Structures are given as C-alpha cells and as structure tokens.
Amino acid sequence: LIEASMTYSDNTANNKIIKEIGGIKKVKQRLKELGDKVTNPVRYEIELNYYSPKSKKDTSTPAAFGKTLNKLIANGKLSKENKKFLLDLMLNNKSGDTLIKDGVSKDCKVADK
C-alpha cells in the first residue's frame, strides 16, 4: 500500500494507510509532535478535489512540509532502514516527472511526493 500511495499517487491506498494508522486526527497529531503547526489534514480523497481557495483545510506550505520532511530524514526521527525506504519511494515516484523533474537539470536527483 505504501509503495502504491507514494510511487503512483494511489489515493485509495493512501486512504487505507491513513485509516490503518488511526485516521486523519492521528496524522495531524503526529505532524504537531514533529513541530508542524501549519499542515492541516482534514479530509480523505476524493473530497480533497473539492476546495475553496479561502479555506485552510487540507493545506500546508513548502516551508512547513520541508521542515517536517527534514526532521524525518535528516534529524534521526526515522531508522536508517525506514529512511532508505522513504527516499527510495520518493526517488522512484512516477507521478511527478512532468512537474518537478522537468524544471531541473537531468543530472539532479529528485525525490518527489
């Protein structure tokens, strides 16, 4: 499920993972424990497709997401094995090729999600 969610942006897999770990409230709690007070998960897919530009529901910022990811990968919040697993998934993402990878030189590695 994790591979489908991360590599192929499989939203059904993502919903199942979130439910398995305790739901959106648990995800939000864990983000706060990591110091992320900006990211605001509220809904599951497919409801995420319906939004208001004025709403803060289901939003984050690049800075908040980057800080959280840095804490997980660089600051030892993940074991060596889990860090490698996450980075491999992000490096093998199939859904971001035309978005991020097209904006950087070919010799850059892009870990995307």
From TrEMBL:
EC class of the enzyme, as a word: hydrolase
Residue span(s) of domain Beta-lactamase class A catalytic: 1-113
Pfam family, one: Beta-lactamase2
GO molecular function: beta-lactamase activity
GO biological process: beta-lactam antibiotic catabolic process; response to antibiotic
Gene3D superfamilies hit by this protein: DD-peptidase/beta-lactamase superfamily
The keyword Hydrolase is annotated on this UniProt entry: yes
Stored PANTHER family: BETA-LACTAMASE (PTHR35333), BETA-LACTAMASE-TYPE TRANSPEPTIDASE FOLD CONTAINING PROTEIN (PTHR35333:SF3)
Name this protein carries in UniProt: Beta-lactamase
Organism the protein comes from: Staphylococcus aureus
Organism lineage string: Bacteria, Bacillati, Bacillota, Bacilli, Bacillales
Gene: blaZ
